[in-house]
Amino acid sequence: MRPDFGFIHSYESFGAVDGPGVRFVVFLQGCPLRCLYCHNPDTWNMQDGKRVSADDVIREILPYRNFIRGGVTLSGGEPLLQPSFCTALLSACKQEGFHTAIDTAGSIPLAACRDAVDAADLILLDIKDIDQADCIALTGQDHQNAFTLLQYCERVKKPVWIRHVLVPGLTLKEEKLHRLAEALQPFSCIEKVELNPFHKMGEYKWQLISTPYLLKETAAPSETSVRHAKEVFRSYALPI
Known about the structure:
Number of strands: 8
Radius of gyration: 17 Å
Strand content: 15-25%
Largest sheet: 8 strands, mixed
Order of helices and strands: EEEHEHEHEHHEHEHH
Strand order of the largest sheet: 3-1-2-4-5-6-7-8
Structural class: alpha/beta
Shape: globular
Distance between the termini: 41 Å
């Protein structure tokens, strides 16, 4: 497949939670992870997406130029699973003057996606779990690639926003919060940390793909526990 062609899932023309400002979000198809709390399991299989060119995507974006006050974010799925297509998209967006971001779980080896990372203005990096064994149980993969990406962003001074989902009984544990905050504390490239409460808004999609949803009995975290998690991160001088 030519590098300027790829598979997408959908678009969002008014994204308010995918980077700074109001953004146009391109959801790419395909993901190597199988997160137990995934709210977009319909993005997992790349071949289920729509095959488009970078020019096709730009044509979708440009009519919204006057409403895009932040830029363009590539999300997914895992956008870096299609690194050449990401690079082509980001380059095309930069030519149009848009700020660009990649929303990634860092699941792809850096050697395979460095060009795309270099082409983005901002990396939104989802750290799944600080414990390697638990990360594998939660997603099917450890977090080594994610931290390798974070270390690279630190070396090249690429701005990063960290994202972390607070799942009661899994990631929302006092000891884990401290360990993750301590691991992130040395990185000056981190501009923001977003602690996102677990939700089940995508549970119905698991039924559509005939896959058991294993967190059916897991409740959303309380406001008190979310506030406490944020205080833990603030105690390490992290930007919440």
